[in-house]
Automatic annotation (TrEMBL):
Key words of the record: Kelch repeat
SUPFAM superfamilies named in the record: Kelch motif (SSF117281)
Organism: Clavelina lepadiformis (Light-bulb sea squirt)
Pfam families: Kelch_1
Protein name as catalogued: Kelch-like protein 18
Length: 143
């Protein structure tokens, strides 16, 4: 690794709430973090980072607490997919609209997924990974 690469790194403002096992996604020049766990419990809270101002701010919380979720952006919306509530694996999906600042529900997954990975290709969300059975975990789910 070149020293030039290392010299260009710097620290940004820290999250407002300590969390792990959260989702993070970029949308319209900002970073969004949602869910996760902290303080021994699952979280529904979400935060937005504006790199130009180097500031985090809380945005509306999701309806459900969820850690180990997938977070992707598509069509100016953020999708929180699956996860773990602290007692159940989730098949629900929530959709955040930054323009209105509101979360709503999307169509649920056909199986519960936690600790999965998701990405967007040509306008479709693909989810693969951990599920309630290893057979299901190997299958790609198109949302």
């Amino acid at each position: 690794m070149s020293s030039h690469f290392l010299k260009d790194h710097h620290w940004c403002a820290t999250l407002l709430y300590n969390r792990g096992f959260h989702g993070m996604v970029a949308l319209n020049g900002k970073l969004y973090v949602a869910g996760g766990s902290g303080g021994g419990r699952q979280l529904a809270s979400a935060e937005c980072f504006d790199p130009a101002a180097n500031v985090w701010e809380f945005v509306a919380s999701m309806h459900e607490k969820r850690s180990s979720l997938c977070l992707v952006a598509l069509n100016d919306r953020i999708f929180a997919i699956g996860g773990y509530s602290g007692s159940n694996f989730l098949s629900s999906m929530e959709v955040y609209n930054p323009s209105t600042g509101l979360w709503g529900y999307g169509a649920p997954l056909n199986i519960q997924r936690s600790e999965a990975c998701a990405c967007v290709i040509k306008g479709k969300i693909y989810v693969i990974g951990e599920a309630t059975s290893m057979t299901e975990a190997r299958k790609i789910l198109v949302v």
